[in-house]
Every structure is written in C-alpha cells, then in structure tokens.
UniProtKB/TrEMBL annotation:
Its cofactor is heme. GO terms for biological process: bile acid biosynthetic process; cholesterol homeostasis. GO terms for molecular function: heme binding; iron ion binding; oxysterol 7-alpha-hydroxylase activity. Pathway: Lipid metabolism; bile acid biosynthesis. Heme binds at residue 422. This is Cytochrome P450 family 7 subfamily B member 1. Belongs to the cytochrome P450 family. Keywords: Endoplasmic reticulum, Heme, Iron, Lipid metabolism, Membrane, Metal-binding, Oxidoreductase, Steroid metabolism. InterPro entries: CYP450_sterol_14alpha_dmase, Cyt_P450, Cyt_P450_CYP7A1-type, Cyt_P450_E_grp-IV, Cyt_P450_sf. Its main location: endoplasmic reticulum. SUPFAM superfamilies: Cytochrome P450. The lineage of its organism: Eukaryota, Metazoa, Chordata, Craniata, Vertebrata.
C-alpha cells in the first residue's frame, strides 16, 4: 500500500491533477464524506473539470463536465463497470465473485435475464404489482374516515416492501403470513443501515449483528425454501433456473444472489417513494395538480372510486401522467446522490476531444457525481427549490435542458449511465406511480403541525437515493 501510495506522487505526463493527502488508505476520505458535493465543487474550482482524489485507498478520477460523460461511457473495454459492481456486490451480499474462469458466461447470462424487466413482461409485472398494492391497501388501510397519524418513511416502507416482494418472489405458501413479511422487512432494514459500511469494505465481523442478519436473510432464499413459493415473477424464475445450472455454486451462494436482487429492487425504491410522497404532501398546490391529473385520466377511462381500491391503468396511461412523472423526477433530482464508477482495465489514454485527453493507470477509478449536475444553477433555475412541474413544457415531458448554451444529453441521472444504468428503472418508476395514484386518489394527506422540514442524510452519498435525516409524521383519511 505504501509503495503504491508513494508511486502516485510522481505524476506521469497527461495525468490529471492529484490531491492525495498524507495518510495511506485514508487520503481525503474524511473531507469527502463530510459533504461530497461541496468537496468536489471546491476541487473543480481549483483544478478544473477533471482531477484525481485519493479516497479510502482508491485513486478516483472525477469527471465533472456533463458534456464529457459520453466520452467515458464509450470506452467500455478499457473502462469497465462490471468489475467494480461485482467486487462490491459479492463482498456485500456474501457470494463468490463472478469471474469468467469459474463461472463462464454467468455475468452475461444474468444481464440477459433483465429482458424480463422490459416490454410485455414489464406489463405483467406492473399488473401484478397493481393487484398486490390494491390488496395491501385494502388490508392495511381499512376505511379510515378519521385522521390517522403515522411516520411517513415507515408508512412507505411497510406498504411498498411487501408489494415489491410479493410481485417479484410470490407468496410463501408453506409459511406465509403478514407476520413473516414484517420480520423479513425488519431484518432487511437493519441490514440496509449497515450497507454503506459494507460497501466501504469494513469487515462485516466488525458490524455487530449484521453478519447473522445477513445469514438469516440469505437462508430465506435457499432453493429448498424458494421451491414452495407460488406466483413468482418471470425474472426471478429465470434467475433461479440460471443459478441452478452452475453446480459449482453452493446453495447459500445461490440464495445470496437472490438476496442481492431483493436489495437491488427495493434499496433505492423505498426512499425514492418516500421523497416523492413527502414533497407532494409538503406542497399542497403540487398535490392538487397531480390529483386533478389522476382524476382526469381515471374519468376518461370510465373509472370511479371503488371501495376495493380497484384502479386499472395501462403502462401507456401511466406514462401519460405528465405532472406525476415530473413530480417524481423532481424528487429524484433533489435526493439522488449516486456515484457512477468505472475501473480502468489497463494503462491507457482517455480522449475527450482532439486536443483534450488524460492518462489513466490500470486500476484507477473514473467517476461521475451527477448530484453536481442536478443542483447546477446553470441547468436548473433555483436548483435547491422543489418545483413539481419542472419537467413539464407545453403539456408534455420536458427533455431539453442546457448548460453554457448547449443542450445536455444527460440532464437527470438517478439510475446511472450507459451500460451500468439500472435495468429495473422502468419497473421502479411504475411502482412509485401506482403507489402514489392509490394514495392521492383515495386519501387526504397533510404533514402534522409543528413537524420540522426533513433534510438529506448524507451517509449514503454515492450509493443512490439518500434517506431522510429525521422522522416526519403525517396524517391521512379517506376522501369524502
């Protein structure tokens, strides 16, 4: 480590400016985690749009100019996302790294299975989710004619986690029951709190009960336990069949892959749902506008209030809810703090323009930090302010945003970029939309008096949607 640390002091021709610090493995970690956006903007002002920082034992070259993102994405062979993702996921969820020698074509075949999150199978998933949400609403939210108080994040999690789980994995007919679902969600939430530490490569043995919690969650997905589940989704069935073909994988390894897929399906969707609901309830004019849009679409399809929460909207109709979609995108813009990372596979020169290029060393990380784009006042006027119709123009979805007078190709990036873009993004947005449609159509909602405004918890910066930094209580009742 010390040798590598000292080698980087001697910069090669064409390498970006380096800010390294003096402590091996730590470098500038502390300054970065305190406020990543502020830290990166300060370095951008000092060094320009491309610079390297030593953080947590890694040399990370940040590309801050959004017009340069496409140049990085194009170098798929030389700068790979999959190596980084596999390394993080295998250590976090407890399965062996997917290397080509031991598991030939497994990674490629897993990616092919994502076709079940698109097209006709996406339609099927959306319909199953709708049915599950309606069933859960009927069970969990009976006729609440008087105000009922609840903590909003917990409210979103308990409803959306179960709806997502039942949609993807089906019902466990051997044990089943709402009690077990509550236990699984409770364990998941405890594991999720430790997720940033696992990604930071802190040994799981140092994280209290996290290891035993992970083992319990993994055991739930053992093949013998999954065999009794009914009505699981096509993508889960495909992944199950695929993993069974690799006899070298132990039963717990296969289960750990399924657990990782569960986290991928809800880890960011749950906080994203919370923020979409929170901002709408915090802004009554936005809530009223979205309600009117939903009401108009339902009436145009001949649908009225149904006591069983029966609402049927095709994917086309969901996509046509322009103001609801804009409100969700605006909450993504304000609350996503992912870091798009790729790893240099060899020493090479990354060319941006005819006269602009940088030299990279094998093993270097190349990263975008889209929050800097999402909160750029050149791109978004008053970027700190929630504006539910920011992504609407002339009654249609707005897709034209500019910086320095040039139209941006990438202007909203909550799901990543290029081949690393989340394959479940369409399903995730459909989940959030359907959840909000039921709530907004059937319930009056308001934040309780005296509740302070919720901020962002930066402990998950770089990992996706940020969590709220404090609880917030709201109340709801059936519309009259």
């Amino acid at each position: 480590v010390l040798g590598n640390f000292n080698v980087y002091f001697n910069r090669k021709a064409g390498e970006p400016p380096l800010e390294q610090g003096w402590i091996p493995l730590i470098g500038k970690t502390y300054g970065f985690i305190q406020d990543p956006l502020k830290f990166l903007r300060a370095r951008q002002e000092k060094y320009g749009d491309i610079f390297t920082v030593y953080i947590a034992g890694r040399y990370i070259t940040f590309v801050m100019d959004p017009f340069l993102y496409i140049n990085v994405i194009r170098y798929r062979k030389q700068i790979d996302f999959q190596q980084f993702a596999d390394d993080i996921a295998s250590k976090t969820f407890g399965y062996p790294a997917i290397n080509e020698d031991k598991f030939p074509s497994l990674n490629e075949r897993i990616h092919k299975s994502y076709k079940y999150l698109q097209g006709e199978t996406l339609e099927n998933l959306t319909e199953t989710l709708r049915n599950n949400l309606q069933w859960i609403f009927k069970r969990e939210l009976p006729e609440v004619r008087d105000w009922r108080n609840e903590e909003m994040y917990h409210f979103c999690c308990r409803l959306m986690f179960e709806a997502n789980f039942l949609t993807l994995y089906g019902k466990n007919c051997a044990i089943g029951g709402h009690k077990q679902m509550t236990e699984i969600r409770s364990m998941f939430e405890k594991f999720d709190k430790m997720f940033p530490y696992l990604v930071a490569r802190i040994p799981i043995q140092l994280l209290g009960s996290t290891r035993s919690i992970r083992e319990k969650l993994i055991n739930y997905f053992l093949p013998k336990n999954m065999a009794v589940w009914k009505e699981s989704s096509e993508i889960v069935q495909a992944r199950k069949q695929l993993l069974e073909q690799y006899e070298v994988l132990m039963e717990k390894d296969k289960a750990a892959h399924h657990f990782a897929f569960l986290w991928a399906s809800v880890g960011n969707t749950l906080p994203a749902t919370f923020w979409a609901l929170y901002y709408l309830v915090m802004h009554p004019e936005a809530l009223a506008a979205v309600h009117d849009e939903i009401d108009h679409v339902l009436r145009s399809t001949g649908q009225e209030i149904d006591p069983d929460y029966i609402i049927h909207l095709t994917r086309e109709k969901l996509d046509g809810l322009i103001y609801l979609g804009s409100a969700i995108n605006e909450s993504f813009r304000l609350c996503s703090a992912s870091m798009n990372i790729r790893v240099a596979q060899e020493d090479f020169t990354l060319k941006f323009e005819e006269t602009k290029a940088i030299s990279l060393r094998k093993g270097d990380w190349v990263a975008f930090y889209p929050q800097s784009l999402h909160l750029d006042p050149e791109v978004y006027e008053n970027p700190e302010v929630y504006k539910f119709d920011r992504f609407v123009e002339d009654g249609k979805e707005k897709t034209a945003f500019y910086k320095n007078g040039k139209k941006l190709r990438d202007y909203l990036m909550p799901f990543g970029s290029g081949v690393s873009k989340c394959p479940g993004r369409f399903f995730a947005v459909n989940e959030i939309k359907q959840f909000l449609i039921l709530l907004i159509k059937y319930y009056d909602m308001e934040i309780l008096p005296g509740e302070r405004q919720v901020g962002l918890d930066s402990s998950r910066a770089g990992l996706g949607i940020l969590l709220p930094n404090s609880p917030v209580h709201f109340r709801y009742k059936l519309r009259t």
